[in-house]
Every structure is written in structure tokens, then in C-alpha cells.
Amino acid sequence: MSSLQGVPMTLAAEWVSSEFAPFLFAGLVLAGLGTIALFCIGLTALYRRRSMPYLLITLALGALVLRTVIGWGTAVGAVPMTIHHFIEHGLDCFVAVLLLITVYQSRSQRSFAADEDDATAKKPAVSQDVQNQQK
Hints:
There is one protein chain. This protein is about 75% helix and about 5% strand. It is mainly alpha-helical.
């Protein structure tokens, strides 16, 4: 058992030495607070924008929250290290895929819009007089 200014911390996990337990707990608390805050900001943005890119980013932020929960589970001994690695690396892959899909969608939407703008800009400007003469 270890303590951080009088707060007892018991770890069921055998792989954490008692001298590093306070740092692990501090890191997990900061990660948890940070990812939950980002996830809430993502939910707010998703509610306001209601678009696919915002949904994908919010899902990625939710996966980061889940990673922290798995980290806590591992630190207290509820999640075995093998399962921890399997889930966390799977979540890393999931986050990367979501971000790549978001970038790809944003890029293809922007390119499509830019192509339309270019096509409109390339059309010769025909005055009303010329249009009347052609009729």
C-alpha cells in the first residue's frame, strides 16, 4: 500500500511497485479528467453540427475515455495485462481508423466543392447582350 499525502492507494496489480503507484494514479486521474472533458466537448460539438466528421471525432474521443477506464481496471487488478494490451491496442487502431476516415471524408468533400467552384469559375462569362443576340 502506498499513499499520496495521506491518501491510501492499494493496487491489486502486481506489476506496479508501491513507490510508483502514486504517479500511476495521478496519470490515470489526469488522463480520465482530460479525456472526459474532451469527450464532453466533442458531444457538444456533435449536437451543434450534427455531421459525420463530428460523429467520428466524438467516437474517437469516446475510445480514449474507454482506454483510461481499461487502464484503471488494469491498475486495480480487474483487467489482466494481456486483455489490457489487446483492448488498448485495438482502441488505438480504432481511433486511427476513425481519424483517417474523417480526414478522407473532409478532404473528398472539400475537393468536390473545390472542383465545382473551379468549374463555375472556368465557364466564360457571357454578357446578357451576347445571350440575347444568340436567341
